[in-house]
Write the structure tokens for this entry.
Amino acid sequence: MPRARPIPARRTSAARRPTHVVRGRSGSESRMVDVGAKPVTSRAAEARVLVVFPRGVLARILAGTGPKGPVTEVARTAAVLAAKRTDEIVPLCHTIPLDSITVEFRRAGSDRLEIRVRATCTGRTGVEMEALVGASVAALTVYDMSKALDHGIRIERLELIEKSGGRSGTWRSGTARSGTARSGTARSGTARSSTARSSAGRSGKERAERKA
């Protein structure tokens, strides 16, 4: 019986090594990655975050009756400002001349607000952090402008859902559309429950009429 050939050990490529850490005299030292040799390409990234409200609060916010004025417009401006200053907030991020920042607010259920921030640039490094910082500051601004109605507002699931450009190409999160799917499922479940209750009610009424 032929002997099984051993599986060669996987070599660690340069892409798998830490790019923000170097060995210095005192041990590991952080650094900003030198991107000067990278090609200039079109890059984009989109992030999202959920803001979950106690019952009834989101309706007031979207109706424009919040205690601090138009919540979504102020949060949109905050997202743009934060994304442009990401390099001042996250230490090892590069200063990037952004081409655009777009901010969308979507109602994801009766008491959930989804915020999506998309950043684009033409440069040597990606804009994932700009999108994430913009989304997080937008959510914090929504909280600040709504907390007078209820302090039980929660910020959940800040995540990158898509990026494109650069050496690694396009990447999409496996949960990019899961929130919408779950909301749809929940609504379908509610509809089925309502139909079942209606059918049960009719059956009960019919039995009562037959007995009478």
Remarks:
- The chain has five helices and seven strands.
- The chain has a mean pLDDT of 79.
- Residues 45 and 210 are 65 Å apart (CA to CA).
- The domain at 38-165 is CATH 3.30.70.640 (Alpha-Beta Plaits).
